[in-house]
């Protein structure tokens, strides 16, 4: 009885191990024909000042690892053992901030006013639609 039980356990573990060590079935590799050239958006590089500063997403960045934050030069990467670069001139700051804003159509102005009005509406209480008894 013990011999039968041990031999069944041995054979079960042997076949289980053999099944787990089997090579996986090869997968089919298909290529999609929809991988045509898709138009990608290229980010236009920000104009660089003569000192090296550039304006990106409203933040002045220097390639040596400095940011201009609230009129102060702040490091954003490891020390490069270089002195901080000079600040951009006031004319450069104003030129970057005085971008030409496209004039809006009457429909866009009306949509902005409506969105503003909806944001400023007072909140209403939720209707009481039932009881929880």
Characterise this structure.
The chain has 133 residues and is α+β, with helices and mostly antiparallel strands. It has a domain at 45-97. It has 3 helices and 4 strands. The chain has helices at residues 2-20, 90-97, 106-120; strands at 54-56, 59-62, 66-69, 72-75. A 4-stranded antiparallel β-sheet has the order 1-2-3-4, with no helix packed on it. A hairpin with a 2-residue loop joins β1 (54-56) and β2. The model has no long low-confidence stretch (mean pLDDT 76).
In short:
This protein has helices spanning 2-20, 90-97, 106-120; strands spanning 54-56, 59-62, 66-69, 72-75. With 133 residues, it is an alpha+beta fold. It has a domain at 45-97.
Q: What is the C-alpha radius of gyration, as a whole number of Å?
A: 34 Å
Oligomer: single chain
Please provide the ordered H/E string of secondary-structure elements.
HEEEEHH
Rounded mean pLDDT is 76
Number of strands: 4
Share of residues in helices: 25-40%
Structural class: alpha+beta
Widest β-sheet, arrangement of strands: 1-2-3-4
What proportion strand? Answer: 5-15%
The count of helical stretches stands at 3
Shape category: flat
Q: Which sheet architecture does the biggest sheet show? A: 4 strands, antiparallel
The stretches of 5 or more residues where confidence is low (pLDDT under 50) are none
What gap, in angstroms, lies between the N and C termini?
A: 64 Å
